[in-house]
Specification:
- By secondary structure, this protein is mostly helical.
- About 75% of the residues lie in helices and about 0% in strands.
- It has one domain (about 10-440): Hydantoin permease (Orthogonal Bundle).
- The termini are far apart.
- It binds tryptophan (TRP).
- Tryptophan binds near residues 228 and 230.
Length: about 450
Amino acid sequence: MRRDHWGSRLGFIMAAAGSAVGLGNIWKFPYMAGGHGGSAFLILYLAFVLGFGLALVIAELVLGRMSGRNPVGAFRVMAGGAWPLVGGIGVLTAVLILSFYCVVAGWTIAYLFYAIEGALDATSAGTLESLFNQLTGSGLAPLCYAAAFMAISVVIVSRGVGSGIERASKLFMPLLFVVLVVMTARAVTLPGAGAGIAFLLKPDLSAIDGETVSAALGQAFFSLSLGLGGLVTYGSYMRASAHIGRDALAVVLLDTLVAMLAGLLIIPAMFAAGMTPGAGGAGTTFKVLPAVFAALPGGHWIAIGFFALLTLAALTSSVSLLEPIVAWLGDEHDIARGRAAPLAGLACMVLAVPVSLSFGVWEHVRIMGYSIFGLLDFLTNNLSLPFGSLMTAIVVGWIIGPRAVAALGPDGRPVGAWAQAWLFVVRFVAPIGIVWILIQGLV
Ligand code: TRP
């Protein structure tokens, strides 16, 4: 079977940035930073993104382009032995992440409807709190929204790489960016926002401990779509003429910029509203944003636009979580895209049921001290994604080694001296850093 390819360089960058930019940036990053000391978290996050996140994005892409396979196949072709197991864990991790990703994306769709109805206009902090609790606490409604979101993702993936994912990303990502800039500009000028800006930007390392380090690493990997072979799969659709390093840099910068903007939107808005950062948990974004809309002229319409675009950003990410599963079913088990996508979506939806209920009737269920959502979040972010990244670094840095350096450039042409620095990071900095942080997180 001939493999699909991205239509253009811009198409790839937009699809990969579409994968990276998602709920991780706008829903997760602000409450993670808020709960882990603000600037302390941000500094670690940036250090991990630039220190080895970028190098690992390049590593996954080159592993994909060299092998032309899904995560399992890529590890089999390039490393053999028991290595395909790492790809298998990656595919499983994609299922686990999607099972909570679709629940949160479902909330986003619900909020889009609230915005249209005007339910978010001129509300007090108290009403917003109960609006969120009412939605997430009910049994059926959030699951219906999650299922609707999953169904759209399945349809896009069924259509294939180029016409579905690429086209949607190219159109909506720039729009989201513009709306985000406008909202952030308003949030940082709200009365009382200054303390929030200082909390996020004024360096204060006192909050750094093992847990913060490990949370920041997990967040960096989650946001960059690293560690489960999603980018291996996207890399397998790259053309020989693409310049992997340059394209990866663009993707990483875009993702980081959007996370920073979202942090500077939500956290100052929390301070302006008199909320304690970190108190809002997984509901933070949803409880805080309406206050910013209300402070903007035409806030009603901006709210609608924002939640519509956030839903689209979540879609371009969920599609990139489905794609490695579908590519694995296709390459390894000969299941056609049109059947593999609904199959994968269904598996994730089954798991989404307990996740969604863990915000309602099963709120009190505790496994190892975690809620069901909390456990999946911890297992994927803090264990599976760092583990997958570590294994990718070992395979690309040590087993493929200099051949990977030669494969980075367009059509096998040599790239600049940075490639040697890249190999050094993949061989030494990333593995040692990840192992050290994994240990910090466990003790
Ligand atoms: N990066 C996306 C976000 O920030 C989520 C995501 C998409 C992802 N593909 C991934 C996370 C692969 C880990 C691995 O919302």
